[in-house]
Write a structure and sequence with these properties.
With 542 residues, the protein is of the alpha/beta class. It has helices spanning 25-50, 56-68, 77-100, 120-130, 140-165, 171-183, 191-220, 245-255, 275-278, 294-299, 317-320, 343-351, 370-375, 377-385, 406-414, 454-467, 486-497, 515-525, 533-541, and strands at 226-229, 236-241, 260-264, 283-286, 304-307, 323-325, 335-336, 363-366, 391-397, 419-424, 438-439, 442-443, 445-449, 477-482, 504-506, 528-529. The longest helix has 30 residues, at 191-220. The N and C termini lie far apart (46 Å). The structure holds FE-S-O hybrid cluster and iron/sulfur cluster (SF4).
Length: 542
């Protein structure tokens, strides 16, 4: 196997024996084969569009198949086998439709004709043969751009899938994905073309994030500042992790009146701010921190656990019977439930002890998405004009297990008192309960939401630039980002597409970026790796 798509990749170069995430070689091979099959499907989807044919089933499948291969989502060989076979069946169906429109159906790329083996072991061998979906004959820089684009597309597909679940989609997203995947192996494309196609991922990702923002706020209302208890109530309990708001809503509906309290874990914390979710009285509080602490935190939770998206880790025996996956998440031997019927999960919670007593552990504030911040924009602008707020930092992104990630905690703690910290995604759990005080009633630590809410942070930056009549790059705003998986790659490409410069990124640079590609990023966008907190604060503020 070879996989280098996430920040924790082995030795900073690639996982070759087994994934640091727990991905085994057979799963890596099946994920590679799924992407290869998807490339074949993309060629027909692109030709179909040329003939005026758009297939919604193909679009949705494309999002789901890509999201499945994101880090810490699907570790189940049987589920991947089903998806590969479904992909080939869709390809054949589309081929017939394209032919009926007079389109081309005879392509030289073997991904358009390959047949999947019926036995799982043989399918794994086929996956090992195709390997990573990059053009192995292209030079290292082109392969690096292709990898960056594919990883960005995985993140983009995750956002598109979330938006789709809540009824929002735009064919431009699928059209770009199909074009990009179909282009791998096209020898006529130059390095410059690949830079363009890669940055286009950022442009399309902005659209997908906008769709998701509209889907979330249109369905559940704009988040409002909300205090979330970190303790618990006496009684039965279910813990919900991941990012899927629809799963959470369905669970809240299906547990209403059943005497079960619902708690969030990890990236689900910001859901407490949505009016149409917080209205449920049994939606109580937040338990635990970020994904990489789940083994310790889940085994101590006295109720059932639902994992709605990434990041799942290998469930330990102590809680394997209590954890359920939904949507695209899968772990072999772990029960899977669908939002249409959470009965097995609810019944499990009812058989478990729950919390024996009420316990207070303080509160954290969330719900500072774009609408909430823009509602106090005048006050924020005044504080800046009066010199009380000197600088804004966006300290956000993914968390992970590496010790170098303490940089972000230290950064927030050492940021001067006259600065405001916007944060989002699971990286915030290193400092989410820090008491940073306020400036003129404006909290110094503002939780914008999940990684899925990066669009909200971008809108806040754009609104500030309008208020100060300057470009975003000229604002007293610095982005200090942590990355882990492929949604972060998509967001970074969006920031680059928007021309945002001087981003600091860590804890390490992506293994799939070659020195030449990094040079392009440094020369055009002045991207920097994080250094020490003191050096970076000094460089930013002085
Ligand atoms: Fe965190 Fe994991 Fe949010 Fe990423 S829970 S690293 O996949 O999506 O951020
Ligand atoms: Fe390694 Fe990350 Fe790939 Fe898992 S997703 S195999 S940790 S590079």
């Amino acid at each position: 196997m070879f996989c280098n798509q996430c920040e924790q990749t082995a030795k900073g170069t690639g996982c070759t024996v087994v994934g640091v995430c727990g991905k085994k070689p057979d799963i890596a091979a099946l994920q590679d084969l799924l992407l290869y099959a998807l490339k074949g499907l993309s060629i027909f989807a692109q030709e179909g569009r040329n003939q005026g044919l758009v297939d919604d089933e193909v679009n949705l499948f494309t999002y789901q198949a890509l999201f499945t291969t994101v880090t810490n989502v699907n570790f189940d060989a049987t589920r991947l086998q089903e998806l590969i076979l479904q992909c080939l069946a869709l390809r054949e169906k589309l081929k017939v439709q394209v032919a009926s429109k007079g389109g081309q159906v005879d392509f030289s790329c073997p991904s358009t004709t390959f047949q999947g083996a019926t036995e799982l072991a043989k399918l794994v061998e086929q996956g090992e043969e195709v390997g990573l979906l990059t053009d192995k004959e292209a030079n290292a820089d082109i392969q690096s751009l292709q990898a960056t684009m594919i990883y960005g597309i995985k993140g983009l597909a995750a956002y598109a899938d979330h938006a789709y679940i809540l009824g929002k989609s735009d064919d431009k997203v699928a059209a770009y994905i199909h074009e990009a995947l179909a282009s791998i192996g096209n020898k006529s494309l130059t390095l410059q073309d690949w830079i363009g196609l890669t940055l286009k991922c950022g442009e399309i990702n902005l659209l997908a994030m906008q769709l998701l923002d509209e889907a979330n706020t249109g369905t559940y209302g704009h988040p409002v500042p909300t205090s979330v208890p970190l303790g618990h109530k006496k009684g039965k309990a279910i813990l919900v992790s991941g990012h899927d708001l629809k799963d959470l809503e369905e669970l809240l509906k299906q547990t209403d009146g059943k005497g079960i309290y619902i708690y969030t874990h990890g990236e689900m914390l910001p859901t407490h701010g949505y009016p149409d979710l917080k209205k449920y009285e049994h939606f109580y509080g937040h338990y635990g921190t970020a994904w990489q602490n789940q083994k310790k935190e889940f085994k101590e939770f006295p109720g059932a656990i639902l994992m709605t998206t990434n990041c799942i880790q290998e469930p330990q025996d102590l809680y394997k019977e209590n954890i359920f996956t939904s949507g695209l998440v899968a772990w072999p031997g772990v029960a899977h439930v669908d939002k249409e019927d959470f009965t097995p999960l609810i019944e499990k919670a009812l058989t478990m002890p729950g919390f024996a007593e009420d316990e207070e552990k303080g509160q954290v504030l969330t719900g500072f998405a774009r609408d909430a911040i823009l509602n106090v924009a005048d006050a924020v602008v005044n504080e800046v004009k009066e010199g009380n707020i000197k600088h804004f930092f966006l300290v956000g992104g993914c968390d992970g297990a590496k010790p170098g990630r303490s940089y972000y905690t230290d950064f927030v703690e050492k940021a001067p008192q006259d600065t405001v910290i916007l944060t989002l995604a699971c990286g915030k759990f290193r400092f989410f309960d820090s008491q940073l005080g306020d400036i003129g009633g404006i909290p110094r630590l503002l939780d914008v939401g999940q990684c899925n809410d990066a669009y909200s942070a971008i809108q806040v930056a754009v609104a500030l630039s309008n208020a100060f009549d300057c470009e975003v790059n000229d604002l007293p705003l610095s982005l200090v980002l942590s990355w882990y998986e492929q949604k972060a790659v998509a967001i970074l490409l969006t920031l680059l597409h928007l021309g945002i410069k001087n981003i600091r990124i860590g804890p390490s640079l992506p293994a799939f970026i070659t020195p030449n590609v990094l040079n392009v990023l440094v020369e055009n966008f002045n991207i920097k790796p994080i250094s020490t907190v003191e050096e970076d604060l000094d460089a930013i503020l002085n």
